[in-house]
Design brief:
The structure holds 2 protein chains of 2 kinds.
Chain A: H1 8-12, E1 41-46, E2 53-55, E3 58-59, H2 61-75, E4 84-86, H3 96-106, E5 113-115, H4 119-122, H5 128-134, E6 139-143, E7 146-150, H6 158-162, H7 167-175, H8 188-200, E8 208-212, H9 230-237, E9 243-247, E10 255-258, E11 261-265, E12 306-313, E13 316-323, E14 329-334, E15 339-342, H10 353-356
Chain B: H1 2-22, H2 43-54, H3 66-69, H4 116-124, H5 136-143, H6 146-156, H7 165-176, H8 185-190, H9 200-210, E1 233-234, H10 241-244, H11 247-259, H12 264-270, H13 272-276, H14 280-283, E2 292-293, H15 315-323, H16 343-354, H17 359-363
Antiparallel strand pairs in B: 1-2
Helix pairs in contact in B: 1-2, 2-7, 4-7, 9-16, 15-16
Classes of the chains: A alpha/beta, B mainly alpha.
Chain lengths: 358, 367
C-alpha cells in the first residue's frame, strides 16, 4: 500500500489529484478557517456487520472478525474521532442474541457511537429491541456547526409487514438480496413530515449530513439498493447548499451527485456485494461517477470489506475508505466540478484492471 | 579442527554450487539468483565471505560468529527456539536459515532491511548477538591479519586503510548468495518430470497444500520454480497474547521510542513487547501489528523449532496451528481460518513438507 502524508493545502488544490492513501494513525492537519460557520472535524463509520448467531454462544466467525477488526483499528485513530457512526445491519436476522453480541463488541470502542438502524436489525421485532436498548430510530443533532439527521429508511408498506405468519418469516424475506417476494424500502410520511419540521429551523448555509441505512436514491430495485420515496426526501434537502447523504446497505463503494446532494456509500465489515451491472438480466442505475472497488481476492475473506475515516472539511465529507487486504480509497468533493471524485482513479485513464474486470 | 572441517564441508559444496550458478542455472526448482551490480560474484569473494562468516573473533568475547546461529551443520540455522549470542544471551527470534535467503526481498522476520549486505551488519552490533559496540573492532582485527589483508586486496583492490564494514558485508553476502538448495524430491517430481520422486502420501500432501490446507497462497509454488514465500507479512496470532492486553500502550510506547531514535534492531531482540509488534515496527501501519514474513519451506523438516519466536517444536504442531485457524486476535490475517483437515490429510501434508529437503543439506546435518 502507498503511504503518503496528506497536507490540507494539497487536498484543496483544484487541479492536483494526488494519491492520498492514508495509514493509521491519521494526522489531520488542523487549519482554522476564519470564515465559514462549521468547524472541521473527524468521525468514523462502521457498518453492515451482519453478526450471525449459530447456536448457544456460537456466532459466524467471519463476520465477528470483521466487526472486531474495525473496532480495534478505529480505537487506534489519532486524532480521535468525535464519534463513530454505526451504519446499520448489526445483526443478520434481528435476533436478540445477535444484537447483544454486537453491542458487546461495539462496547470496546473508545469513542461515542451514533446508531443507524438497518433492515436486518428491524424486521424481526419492528425495531423494539433497537428502540429500547440502542437508540431512537430517527433523530437529528448538531455538531460543530453541521446538522446531522439520522433516518430509518428501510421501512416498507404496512400491508407487506403484516402479511407474514411469523416475525421470523418476515425477517427472512427481508434478509434476501434478490427476493421477488420482497418489498422496496421507504422513509414514509411520518419521517418526511418530521424531517420537514426539523429542517425548517436550519439555515440554508448550514452543512447537512443525512445518515440512513439504505441509499436515499434509486440504484437497483431487484436488490433493494433503493428508496421508493427518495425524491420526496431529496426535495426537502435540495434547498440546502451542502448536503451529504451517507448510507450503508450496498456493501460496496458507490457515490453520486444529484443536484446539491452528494451520496456516499459505506463499506461493510462482513462481505462485499457484486456491482449491479454484473446482474445483466435487469437494467440498473449505478451512478457512472463511481469508480468500482478493486475486484476482491476470494482467498481473503476481508478483501473488499472495511470501514471509513471521514473528515468534515468546509462542510463537505472527505471519505478515507480503509479497505482491508487491498488499497485504501479516498473520495472528496471537488468544488470546481461540483461532485465527489476518487482522488486517485477518477480519471478514466487512471483506472486499473481490478476495477474493470468483474 | 572443527573449524577446518566446516570450512572444507562448505568449500566443496560451494565450488560445485558456484560453478553451477556462474553458468546461470540455479539448482532444480529455484529461480536465478539476482546479483546486485555493485557486488559481483567472484570465487575469491565468496571464499572470503565464508571465512568472515566463520570468524568468531568478530564478537565481544570471541565466541560468536555468523555460523553460531547459522550453522552449516544445522541447515544454516541453530536448532534453538531463539538465538543465543555472546554469554549465551537469548534474543527473541528464531534464527532463520540462510539457505535460500537470497530469494527474500527483505531480510529478518519483520523485513526491516532489504538486502543481505544490510542484514549482515546488524548482528555484529546487537547486544544479545555478537555484542560489539560498533563495527570498528572487526576492521581492526582484519587490519591486523595479513591473510585477510591479502584477500581484501585481491577481492576489492583495497589498501588496508580503505577497508570498511561495507567490504566485509559484501563478501559475506556474496557467500550467502551461493547458499541455495533445490533438487529436493518435490523439485524432481514437480520440475524434473520424475513422477516417482515423491511418495504417494507426499503427492496427496501436495494436492492438500494447494487446496484444502490453503498453504499455496502464501508459501507459493510457481510454475517453473518455487521459493515457498510470497515475500509478504502475515499475522497468524503466534505470540500475540504478549501484546494483546495492553496493545494501545505498547504501540504508543514503541512509537515514541522510535521517534526518539531508538534502534529497531536492538528493540526487537531485547524487548519482548516490541518484538511481538512484528512488521509494525518498520511501517508504523496499524494493520501490520503482529505480522511476520512468510518464511521459505525449503528444508523445513531440518529447521525446527518453528515460527518467529520458535514456539512450535514440530511440524505436527505447525499443522495443528493452521488447522485450528491460527491464534485468535483482532489483527489475524484474513486468509487464516479453521481448515478441518482429517488425520490422513495432516499426515499426508507432513510427508509433503518432508519432501522439501535438499539431499545435500540433509547429508551435512550434524547427527
Amino acid at each position: 500500500m502507498k503511504k503518503k502524508m496528506i497536507s490540507r493545502r494539497t487536498f484543496l488544490k483544484q487541479a492536483a489529484f494526488t494519491a492520498a492513501a492514508v495509514s493509521l494513525p491519521l494526522s489531520v492537519v488542523e487549519v482554522s478557517w476564519g470564515k465559514g460557520k462549521s468547524q472541521n472535524f473527524t468521525f468514523a463509520y462502521i457498518s453492515d456487520s451482519h453478526l450471525t448467531h449459530i447456536k448457544g454462544s456460537e456466532f459466524v466467525r467471519n463476520f465477528d472478525k470483521g466487526l472486531k477488526k474495525a473496532v480495534t483499528e478505529c480505537n487506534f485513530m489519532s486524532p480521535k474521532p468525535d464519534f463513530v457512526v454505526y451504519g446499520g445491519d448489526l445483526a443478520q436476522l434481528g435476533k436478540k442474541e445477535e444484537l447483544e453480541h454486537g453491542l458487546e463488541i461495539m462496547s470496546k470502542l473508545r469513542h461515542p457511537v451514533k446508531w443507524v438502524i438497518g433492515e436486518h436489525d428491524y424486521y424481526l421485532d419492528l425495531g423494539k429491541f433497537w428502540r429500547e436498548k440502542i437508540s431512537n430510530l430517527y433523530y437529528s443533532f448538531d455538531h460543530k456547526g453541521v446538522h446531522f439527521v439520522v433516518l430509518n429508511s428501510i421501512l416498507t408498506y404496512d400491508s407487506w409487514i403484516n402479511k407474514w405468519a411469523t416475525p421470523e418469516e418476515r425477517m427472512a424475506n427481508m434478509a434476501r438480496l434478490d427476493n421477488p417476494n420482497g418489498s422496496p424500502f421507504m422513509v414514509k410520511e411520518e419521517q418526511i413530515a418530521w424531517l420537514k419540521k426539523d429542517l425548517a429551523n436550519v439555515s440554508k448555509d448550514t452543512p447537512i449530513i443525512v445518515m440512513s441505512h439504505s441509499p436515499l436514491y434509486k440504484i437497483f430495485k431487484p436488490w433493494n439498493f433503493w428508496t421508493e420515496d427518495a425524491e420526496k426526501v431529496q426535495a426537502l434537502l435540495q434547498p440546502f447548499k451542502k448536503v451529504t447523504v451517507l448510507h450503508g446497505h450496498v456493501h460496496q463503494i458507490l457515490y453520486n451527485q444529484i443536484g446539491n446532494i452528494t451520496f456516499q456509500a459505506m463499506l461493510s465489515t462482513a462481505w462485499p456485494w457484486p456491482y449491479p451491472p454484473s446482474y445483466i438480466q435487469k437494467p440498473h442505475q449505478v451512478p457512472k461517477l463511481t469508480v468500482f472497488m478493486n475486484r476482491a481476492d476470494p482467498f481473503h475473506e476481508r478483501d473488499a470489506t472495511g470501514w471509513s475515516i471521514l473528515n468534515l472539511e468546509n462542510g463537505r465529507v472527505i471519505n478515507h475508505f480503509k479497505l482491508w487486504e487491498n488499497k485504501d480509497r479516498v473520495l472528496r468533493y471537488d468544488e470546481k466540478l461540483g461532485y465527489p471524485v476518487d482522488v486517485e482513479y477518477q480519471d478514466p485513464a487512471k483506472r486499473i484492471p481490478p476495477q474493470t474486470h468483474y | 579442527m572443527k573449524k577446518q572441517c566446516a570450512f572444507l564441508m562448505i568449500s566443496t559444496f560451494l565450488v560445485a554450487l558456484f560453478l553451477t550458478l556462474k553458468a546461470g542455472a540455479a539448482p532444480l526448482g529455484l529461480p536465478e539468483v539476482k546479483i546486485p551490480p555493485d557486488n559481483p560474484q567472484t570465487m575469491e569473494k565468496v571464499r572470503l565471505g565464508e571465512k568472515l562468516f566463520l570468524d568468531k573473533r568478530f564478537s565481544l568475547d570471541g565466541t560468536v560468529s555468523c555460523a553460531t546461529c547459522h550453522d552449516p551443520a544445522k541447515a544454516f540455522a541453530d536448532g534453538l527456539p531463539v538465538a543465543e549470542g555472546i554469554k549465551k544471551l537469548k534474543g527473541m527470534r528464531n534464527s532463520p536459515t540462510v539457505l535460500n535467503a537470497v530469494y527474500y526481498t527483505t531480510q529478518f522476520w519483520d523485513g526491516r532491511v532489504k538486502t543481505l549486505e544490510e542484514q549482515a551488519k546488524a548482528p555484529f552490533i546487537n547486544p544479545v548477538e555478537h555484542g560489539l559496540k560498533s563495527h570498528d573492532p572487526i576492521i581492526t582485527i582484519i587490519k591486523s591479519d595479513p591473510e585477510y589483508l591479502k584477500e581484501f586486496k585481491k577481492v576489492f583492490g583495497v589498501k588496508p586503510e580503505e577497508i570498511t564494514i561495507d567490504h566485509v558485508v559484501k563478501a559475506i553476502a556474496a557467500f550467502e548468495r551461493t547458499l541455495v538448495s533445490g533438487d529436493s524430491p518435490f523439485d524432481r517430481y514437480m520440475y524434473g518430470q520424475d513422477k516417482t520422486a515423491m511418495s504417494e502420501a507426499a503427492i496427496r500432501g501436495l494436492e492438500i497444500y494447494r487446496t484444502k490446507a490453503r498453504c499455496q497462497d502464501c508459501h507459493t509454488i510457481g510454475q517453473t520454480n518455487a521459493i515457498f514465500t510470497d515475500n509478504k507479512f502475515h499475522n497468524l496470532g503466534v505470540g500475540f497474547s504478549v501484546i494483546e492486553e495492553n496493545l494501545f500502550e505498547i504501540v504508543e510506547k514503541f512509537k515514541k521510542a522510535k521517534e526518539a531514535g531508538k534502534d529497531i534492531d536492538e528493540s526487537v531482540l531485547t524487548n519482548k513487547e516490541a518484538s511481538e509488534l512484528g512488521r509494525f515496527v518498520v511501517t508504523l501501519n496499524i494493520e501490520d501489528i503482529g505480522r511476520f514474513k512468510t518464511p521459505t519451506l525449503r528444508n523445513v523438516a531440518l529447521t525446527a523449532p518453528y515460527m518467529h519466536d520458535g514456539s512450535l517444536n514440530t511440524l505436527e504442531e505447525v499443522i495443528e496451528l493452521y488447522d485450528q485457524g491460527g491464534e485468535e486476535n483482532p489483527m489475524l490475517d484474513s486468509g487464516i481460518r479453521p481448515l478441518r483437515l482429517t488425520d490422513q490429510e495432516k499426515s499426508d501434508l507432513l510427508e509433503f513438507l518432508k519432501a522439501l529437503t535438499s539431499p545435500e543439506v540433509a547429508a551435512k546435518m550434524k547427527k
